[in-house]
Amino acid sequence: SWAATVSERLARPTPHLLALKVLLGPTSSTCSTQQRRRGAIFSLLIDQEESPAPVMPARLPAAFSHATGDIELSGALPYGDFSFVEDNRVVLVNPVTGTLQSIEMYGPRRRFEVEPQLRVAAGANALFVTECFGSVSLLWCEEERWFEEKLLQPEVFRGCDAIRLADYAGGTLYAMDYNGFTYIRLRAPSILKQYSSIPGYTYLRDTNNHLLVSEGEVMFVGMVLAPQEPGCPKSVGGFEVYTLDVKVTRWVKVERLADDRALFVSEQSSLAVRASETPGCRANCIYFVSELDKHSYSNSIWGVYSMEEQKVLFQRPVGGSPGKYKAGRWFFPGVGASPARSGNCAKHGKKRKFQML
């Protein structure tokens, strides 16, 4: 069974890809079936052959998949859970086992009030909630209980959509705003002064830019688009990678990934592995998945970029043909009970100190 296969792989966790199926426009006769949210789980993309078939359908609980609200996939948490945002709550779903948990993130909004934004703090069972006027809360789960803490941040770091990228490692939270600024006790320079960002954009897009911590190093991975021919779809031309020198608060460009590493980057869900410990994985490579055009699901692609050869080895639509899947996220499958899951996992008032970069 797939559960047995996952249990075996957990000894050597292998990144997998979760992607949601694109829903066709509903009609009066097909509305009930087409509105159900479905997805699939794919194994590691290895070579230039056709995109592999799904290893299993994602198990999205019926009560969740038939929900009428506007549910948005945010990112993956440890232990294999994914967070979906619906109105003022987050729904945690394990796509392998189908288990589900719903958590209220904030109170009801006033009419015409800007909707709070949620970002997953990769590497931890933690979520950022940014409300209007720049009020930021951190919610994290510890011993099957959710806790909340209001964060203080510099004045320039405020805004209803300030936090774009976030990660967690070793008791420290790392956060980057949409202007590319990262914070410790002193403000680090904007990555946009070095990163060759997509032409026409003067801010970070969390779909094409990624923040992660790998073996103690804070890393920024930014996509660079290939020159676009008239009438041709967008495509990935490469990536730029930087590490943050915390002592002198500056970004240092990386030409090669150290220590047999490979990176897997996707929106709000990025991770690093040692290639020698990951079957089928190539060292010094970036495995990517992205929707290059949010208004066109035909460009939901995944592929591999070689840092050594400085070129994209291959890229293709998720699922093999354009327009089938969207919202791809890398994750480690899990079948055990998550620390974030409990029969009565409500928010509590306990405070905990976090360092914020």
TrEMBL record:
Domain (KIB1-4 beta-propeller) ranges: 138-306
Pfam family, one: Beta-prop_KIB1-4
InterPro entries the record matches: KIB1-4_b-propeller
UniProt protein name: KIB1-4 beta-propeller domain-containing protein
Source species of the chain: Triticum aestivum
